[in-house]
Amino acid sequence: MRETKVVCRELDCGNPVAESRGPLIEDGRRGVRLGGCYGNESSIRQCDIIEEPGVCNGEYYHHVTCSESVRLVDGAGLCSGRVEVKSNQSWASVCEADFDRQDAEVVCGELGCGAPAALQGGLYGEGEGQTWDKEFQCKGKESFLLVCDTSDRENNTCLPGNAVGLTCSEPDDVRLVGGSSRCAGGVEWYDQGEWRTVGADGDQEAVGAVVCRQLGCGSTVSVPPGDTTRGVEVICSGSESSLRECWRSSYLLPGLTVICSVQPDISLTDSMGGVSRGHQGSEMFRGYNFTITCSTQPQYPGGCFLLTFTGSNIQQIQPAVNHSAAFLFPAADDSHQGNYSCVYETDVFSHSFSSESELLSLTITASPLPAFIIRHVVVLLILLTSITTSYLYYKPTRRQKRVNRVSSMDLDVNAMEMVSLSSRAEAGPGEERAAQGTE
């Protein structure tokens, strides 16, 4: 879409929104064949022209749709930049206070991008022209920004650094099909209402890098031979943020298959508090046990992790369980000092690939106390905690039992007194006086 970006810029019509192609309605229409644009040209005439104007019998024309009234400038791609609105045939930046997330949703949708990802004043610099003097009040469902309601701005000034910048997510118009995850498979591009196969002949790695970047799947690991299905040729430099910024031709080539992978993570933990961060990386006390954990995003099922160590030729390997593996070292010593890395290996499309993590630098240092003393102290603390907990639990129970026993004795005494009183009542007054005289 680099050519369409140049066309919209030359016509002062904002950002390109869509591009389509179709057969010429009639023969004899004159045109030129472009070799491609870089996207920063001010005129289509500055692009590479393969053939001079002539007859385009049997070829295709290109149809371009520009946003016309809103654009994003000075960003990394078509879906990011400083928000500018066309006013009286000139472009005006928008103040951050006059623009909220619902307004951003309308702009992202109007430009054919995904949902808003970042909204901040001064994110993409300041505009050189005028500032939009209205406050937008979009509901988020409008098709175009300029059909939203507006109101007069409460403050007539927009301070420097408040020109609103917007980053939209890339459009959901690319997918990988036929693989074991969404990050591996044949490349398809949603174009003109249907999913189309993408083909590539030249730098396939560059196309794969753009696809993986757009899908949020990390970097390209491999581009194995594609299938027999033929698709439209796409040519990328590799730096584009989305596939629609690449150049495409009318040629049909074998479909492109891409395998992406996110770099695995590596981390260091221990159960005794012996890990610290130093100037050279992680530091571990001598004699402490530690664990190195390898993990990766849940892209592919199965696979295994290989833990490599620069200080030794010995390598450890474990299967990936829940996309991770833990390597336990019982006691740190000087032989464990060095650089570690995790390598994730798996098979996709009967093709083996691997991806390596960053290096983890580990330094072994002397412990402030001998390790065996610290271990004994930890054990004693655990025992003391258990004893204290048991004491606090059983003490109320014993007290309650004593209270229950006293209560029971009181009940027995009361019962005996009740029986005695009942017996005297049944004996009558005479027997009671006789009993008192006997006493």
From TrEMBL:
<dbReference type="InterPro" id="IPR013783">
    <property type="entry name" value="Ig-like_fold"/>
</dbReference>
<keyword id="KW-1015">Disulfide bond</keyword>
<feature type="disulfide bond">
    <location>
        <begin position="138"/>
        <end position="148"/>
    </location>
</feature>
<keyword id="KW-0472">Membrane</keyword>
<dbReference type="InterPro" id="IPR036179">
    <property type="entry name" value="Ig-like_dom_sf"/>
</dbReference>
<feature type="disulfide bond">
    <location>
        <begin position="37"/>
        <end position="47"/>
    </location>
</feature>
<feature type="domain" description="SRCR">
    <location>
        <begin position="70"/>
        <end position="169"/>
    </location>
</feature>
<keyword id="KW-0677">Repeat</keyword>
<dbReference type="GO" id="GO:0005615">
    <property type="term" value="C:extracellular space"/>
</dbReference>
<feature type="disulfide bond">
    <location>
        <begin position="236"/>
        <end position="246"/>
    </location>
</feature>
<feature type="domain" description="SRCR">
    <location>
        <begin position="1"/>
        <end position="67"/>
    </location>
</feature>
<feature type="domain" description="SRCR">
    <location>
        <begin position="174"/>
        <end position="271"/>
    </location>
</feature>
<keyword id="KW-0812">Transmembrane</keyword>
<dbReference type="InterPro" id="IPR001190">
    <property type="entry name" value="SRCR"/>
</dbReference>
<keyword id="KW-0732">Signal</keyword>
<dbReference type="Pfam" id="PF00530">
    <property type="entry name" value="SRCR"/>
</dbReference>
<dbReference type="GO" id="GO:0031638">
    <property type="term" value="P:zymogen activation"/>
</dbReference>
<feature type="transmembrane region" description="Helical">
    <location>
        <begin position="372"/>
        <end position="394"/>
    </location>
</feature>
<dbReference type="GO" id="GO:0004252">
    <property type="term" value="F:serine-type endopeptidase activity"/>
</dbReference>
<dbReference type="GO" id="GO:0005886">
    <property type="term" value="C:plasma membrane"/>
</dbReference>
<dbReference type="InterPro" id="IPR036772">
    <property type="entry name" value="SRCR-like_dom_sf"/>
</dbReference>
<protein>
    <recommendedName>
        <fullName>SRCR domain-containing protein</fullName>
    </recommendedName>
</protein>
<keyword id="KW-0964">Secreted</keyword>
<keyword id="KW-1133">Transmembrane helix</keyword>
<keyword id="KW-0325">Glycoprotein</keyword>
